[in-house]
Amino acid sequence: MSLVWYGKQVLSAVKEATKGGINATMLECVNDAQSQLWMGHGVKTGIMKGSLHSEAAIEESDAIIGRWGSFDVNYALHQETRLGYLRYAADRQYPELMRRIVERIGKYTPPSGE
What we know:
About 55% of the residues lie in helices and about 20% in strands. The two termini are about 15 Å apart. It has one domain. It has helices spanning about 5-35, 45-50, 75-85, 85-95, 95-105, and strands at about 40, 40-45, 50-60, 65-70. The chain is α+β, with helices and mostly antiparallel strands and about 110 residues long.
């Protein structure tokens, strides 16, 4: 009896599941943060609310990194300090990251021939 270990494929599947989980979590953070901004509460023109977005997770050295928020509206930091809409969204969504990764690992399809 022998065991065939597909280490590279397993690690690749875990990395892809992690990227997918991070991407899904960041998207939910954006949606959550946008829902906390409305006319008179962080919204005058809608520019900042519309500027919230996420960038696809990437590998950097031994890490997988994703970014989300407002990257090009100068007053977004002031509004975050005043309203905390990004922090509140992160506090609600980050705990779901592990579940989102595990769900994607559960969809793993082994290489043919197993």
